[in-house]
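Per your request, structure below.
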């Protein structure tokens, strides 16, 4: 790999790791609702050590007061999650 490409890739990796570590909360810091979360959404100790830090599990437990665009259609619920709401 050319040196300039290696340096660029290293900087991108360091930046991404900074995002991950600044936003990562361990199991003791997470606040779960009174109902237990599904097993797939609970972080395990192997998640941070085996390199699989790019997984996100989201569970929508409840929706209320959904409105459809037309009276004869069912509402189409969806979830939007925004990553990294700060400047680089």
């Amino acid at each position: 790999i050319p040196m300039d490409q290696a340096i660029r890739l290293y900087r991108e990796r360091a930046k991404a790791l900074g995002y991950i570590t600044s936003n990562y909360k361990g199991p003791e810091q997470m606040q779960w609702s009174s109902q237990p979360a599904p097993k797939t959404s609970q972080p395990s100790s192997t998640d941070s050590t085996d390199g699989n830090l790019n997984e996100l599990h989201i569970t929508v437990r409840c929706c209320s007061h959904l409105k459809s665009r037309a009276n004869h259609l069912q509402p189409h619920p969806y979830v939007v999650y925004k990553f990294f709401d700060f400047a680089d």
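The two ends are 26 Å apart (CA to CA).

Regards,
D.
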